[in-house]
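User: These chains co-purify. Model them together.
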Amino acid sequence: MGMTVVQKVLARATGRRMVAIGDVVEPAVDLAMSHENAALVINQFLEVYQGTGLEPKPWDPAKIAIVFDHRVPAETPKTATNQKKVREFVAAQGITKFHDIRGDEGGICHQVLPENGYVRPGHVVVGTDSHTTSHGALGAFAFGIGATEMASVWALGYAMTVEVPGTIKVEVTGALPDFVTPKDLILQLVGKLGAGGATFHVLEFHGDTIRAMSTSGRLTLCNMSVEAGATSGIVPADEETLRYLREEAGVADDVEPMAPEPDAPYERIVQLDASKLEPQIACPHTVDNVRPVSSVAGTRVHQVVIGSCTNGRLDDIAMAARMVKGKKVARGTRMLVFPASGRIYQQAVAAGYVGDLMRAGAVVMNAGCGPCLGVHQGALGDGEVALSTTNRNFKGRMGNPASEVYLCSPAVAAASALTGVITDPRDGGAA
Amino acid sequence: MSRARVVLALDDDVSTDQIYPGRYMATVLPTETPQFAFADQTAFNALLKSGGVPVGSVLVAGKNFGCGSSREQAVSALKGHELVIVAKSFARIFLQNAINLGLKLVEVPDLVAAEGDDLAIGLTELTNLTSGRRFGIKPLPAARQAIMDAGGLIPYTRKRLVGRSVVG
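Assistant: Joint model of the two components:
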């Protein structure tokens, strides 16, 4: 029996020739990422050393990444103080992969890591954020963990009690139609599998649609794999991965792609035909409550959000900008755009997208998580409806349990911003 | 065998946003997070804070309890009230966080229980004393049980660290 990509990654990371599904392993970690919750990780890390007589020192500061993104710039003195403590720890420990609140190198962790070439095919990546699954887009095995588990990784350099997960193969064929995007594909898949349908499993993406897809689109797919409960999503590295690493992430050293073996043991194969896909939308209050956009067209929208680790990259912003250029956001609807990183923000300025969006009435905010998780910026009023390119629509997600959140692609979001109601982008958008 | 009353019954897919809303995430210390447990369910939150929920009381839920964010506050907040969570299934990160921090979870795939029911929780079986029905408990994987037995991930890691420094 052959091995899936994740089995191969875990075999390498444990120095074994092979690992079987269900084996409990302790893989060496290549990259350990945290955001503001590094404040809690530090607290737990220091507690690990209590009474040991040992000096608290992370196993390898070069493999730790810390990126401020959830509350940037700080919204309260409490957050600012947490961030200050993290900065002090970073300086004391010599952590170099630190991305502070800056327009040049800051942004959302799940964008900052790939665009700086920190993530490579075959890596084991852990992050104190559930959307760490994103990094599977580069052929890494990447999964979310809690702060205490991260403290343990900082101390030891490996993750404990990792069960080698089974894999669901997702095979996607056909070209995506106009105005239909990777976001629609992953929404459809989450709807099909259900919110817990892939729990303790990995989604491994294959097929000509995936091969033709940019790394940006693959990041969207892997990002939302966790919304089906998956441990991770993964796209086996290919020529596009190498192109991205060389041209966009500035990686000059050798990169070794890792492919599944032909007789890899898939527990299940899910086939999707991209050519027949319509724009999709996840309705309140679960991500698997997915329907074609056409079925809820006309629903009044008070706030449109374009951004996040799911859909805040240059192609997402470009699509929105092209759709609203020369038109106007509907009165009574707010359109907020959050680029995923400072680098993307600069590219969007240079390409003229930011100007197009602002002239249409959109507000372009600083790079970061923005209103996605309801802690900072873009709060919703009682009874208001948000249409968002983010990844979660749980009750209260955007900070107000008396509001509703729908999830969609940037195309649906931009088309709807122009009309003020949920609109199928294939219908032209502007009223 | 422990006996306890169900103080809250919830459906499938209870998210960490419901358990611990994102706006309180700047609060990180386990000593401070319990006040925000189920903050948006104001009546239950008030009951918890009033001390009206006895230690060891049970919260029951459907499938995929704790889905969403990796925020550990969702676990430390419940742990602070010494609640026991009985659900049909748990989301992966929440399950691991609970084991790491020592929050008691019981996975009962066929569970039927309502608010006010009294439960007897054994090692392999849960009895709903109110309805008289018995349900099988899905055991924790052995590797995770070792963390529970050590008293959580911090002592478990500490032991490894000290062991390593002695050896090497």
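The helical segments of chain B are 16-19, 42-49, 73-80, 92-101, 142-150, 153-167.
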